[in-house]
Write a structure and sequence with these properties.
The chain has 421 residues and is of the alpha/beta class. It folds into two domains: 2-19 and 233-420, Enolpyruvate transferase domain (UDP-n-acetylglucosamine1-carboxyvinyl-transferase, Chain, Alpha-beta prism); 22-230, Alpha-beta prism (UDP-n-acetylglucosamine1-carboxyvinyl-transferase, Chain), CATH 3.65.10.10. It is 31% helix and 25% strand. The protein has 14 helices and 24 strands. The strands form six sheets. It has a four-stranded mixed β-sheet with strand order 22-23-1-24, covered by helices on one side. Strands 2-15-17-16 form a four-stranded mixed β-sheet. The protein has a four-stranded mixed β-sheet with strand order 4-5-3-14, with helices on one face. Strand 12 and strand 13 (215-219) form a beta hairpin. Helix 4 packs parallel to helix 6, helix 8 (235-247) packs parallel to helix 10 (310-318) and helix 10 packs parallel to helix 12. The longest helix is centred in the middle third of the chain and has 13 residues, at 235-247. It starts with a strand and ends with a strand. The structure holds uridine-diphosphate-N-acetylglucosamine. Uridine-diphosphate-N-acetylglucosamine binds at residues 23, 26, 92-93, 121-126, 160-162, 165-168, 189, 193, 307-308, 330-331.
Length: 421
């Protein structure tokens, strides 16, 4: 296993290119199962999760290749409708093969993904949505079994206790494109990754409108063809580099990001005293951390503050004088990074779904452990600003979501490298 070593204190400067979105690429790759013609997906980041999705698609019988950010998938002959436990348990997002398998083969057997470190993560909304499309769904032996004779469009309210669901919207949308008649999804997830998936499906011949809003309408079609698509930039990677710039009092030009996807983060940063320059194609932030004010955040579905930026924002607030409160409304248990940040000298107290952060003057480098993807990013940010040496173990989590993270940071002047544990 690898660990990351960071000697903190360098101010990061220069330009960084943002990779394609992980969370958009995964369901788009799964959507290629809906056609027997080849699909070409560009700007796909070279991450462990992508290779796992390719493995799942191949296990189902698709031909799938990855070459320098370009994924080619041809699902002409599918030989299986089962996504097995050993693959699905490694990556929750692989559950989004359920919708396309039901659409294309009218049956699917997909392992339940199980919980993960950030919480229980049920799939009730995915199943409810498919049932409204006339699909018979049962759960046995840890698998979801779904079958349908004729997919029928329906009206589906897809909200749960924590609001809309990204992958449930994706799954229902991918089955509904081949249903007879019209489907209306209410309280659909508005995330840009869902809109990107809908745009890809429309290129394949689907008839989807309203993507990006809570009301998505789908007019079913008989079949879908192949398509070519360029995935949107990764807003969470962009947000993380914005944090790296501010926390190190640096000046990084974030290239290729869509600033409209980061409106809430930019708004919070402006409230904290950061000047944000944004344009088509780049984001640049200027701040003196000395003048930085603490701000409170509450995570919410898009366009609210993303839960996937919560941990990184907490690192920034840890070194911002004053008190701030972070409230987690999507995954109330997503606070594994708190104990690790406190080991580096942060003052964070957890109270139910809230974390109360009293900013300190400085963090000190320490050996810490990454618990999940975004918690790992928070520890990297903390390590960049901490005095001395930070060693982050279990960084395989980080490799699931950040392409070339240490190479990108090194280019910006960070003293960061990888060693074998
Ligand atoms: C996606 C993202 C993940 C992000 C999350 C929330 C991908 C691959 N992953 O995950 O990075 O953190 O959105 O923005 O895109 N829920 C239910 N029932 C369900 C489904 C979800 O109650 O059937 C709850 C979840 O427990 C959570 C909330 O709904 O509290 C939102 O989860 P959801 O949007 O489904 O997350 P994912 O799509 O799994």
């Amino acid at each position: 296993m690898d660990k990351l070593i960071i000697e903190g204190g360098a101010r990061l400067k220069g330009e960084v290119n943002i990779s394609g979105s992980k969370n958009a690429s995964l369901p788009i790759m799964a959507a290629a199962l809906l056609s027997d013609e080849p699909c070409v997906i560009k700007n796909v980041p070279d991450l462990r999760d992508m290779h796992l999705m390719l493995k799942i698609l191949r296990a189902l019988g698709a031909e799938a290749e990855f070459d320098k950010g370009k994924v080619t998938i041809c699902a002409k002959k599918l030989k299986s409708y089962t996504a097995p436990y050993n693959l699905v348990s490694k990556m929750r997002a692989s559950f989004c093969v359920l919708g396309p398998l039901v659409g294309r083969l009218k049956k699917a057997r997909v392992s339940l993904p199980g919980g993960c470190i950030i919480g229980v993560r049920p799939v009730d909304l995915h199943l409810k949505g498919l049932q409204r499309l006339n699909v018979a769904v049962s759960v046995s032996g840890g698998y979801v079994n779904a079958s349908v004779k004729d997919l029928k469009g329906g009206s589906i309210y897809l909200g749960g206790e924590f609001g809309s669901s990204v992958l449930a919207t994706a799954n229902v949308m991918m089955a509904a494109v081949l249903a007879k008649g019209k489907t209306l999804i209410e309280n659909a997830a508005c995330e840009p990754e869902v809109a990107d998936l809908a745009n890809f499906l429309n290129k394949m011949g689907a008839k989807i409108t309203g993507q990006g809003s809570p009301n998505i309408e789908i007019e079913g079609v008989r079949s879908l063809g192949g398509a070519e698509h360029k995935v949107i930039p990764d807003r969470i990677e962009a947000g993380t580099f914005i944090m790296a710039s501010i926390i190190t009092r640096g000046s990084i030009v974030i290239k290729g990001a869509v600033y409209q996807h980061l409106s809430v983060l930019i708004d919070k940063l402006e409230e904290a005293g950061v000047t944000v320059e944004k344009n088509d194609g780049y984001i640049y932030t200027k701040s003196s951390r000395n003048k930085f004010k603490p701000v409170n955040i509450t995570t919410l579905p898009y366009p609210g503050f993303p839960t996937d930026m919560q941990a990184q924002f907490m690192s920034l607030m840890s070194v911002t004088p004053g008190v701030s409160v972070v409230t987690e409304k999507i995954y109330p248990d997503r606070f594994m990074h708190v104990a690790e940040l406190n080991r580096m000298g942060a003052h964070i107290q957890k109270e139910g779904p809230h974390a109360i952060i009293s900013g300190v003057k400085a963090l000190s480098g320490a050996p810490v452990m990454a618990s999940d993807l975004r918690a790992s990013a928070a520890l990297v940010l903390a390590g960049l600003v901490a005095k001395g040496r930070t060693e982050i173990s279990r960084i395989y989590h980080l490799d699931r979501g950040y392409e070339l993270i240490e190479a990108k940071l090194q280019k910006l002047g960070a003293r960061i490298w990888r060693e074998k544990e």
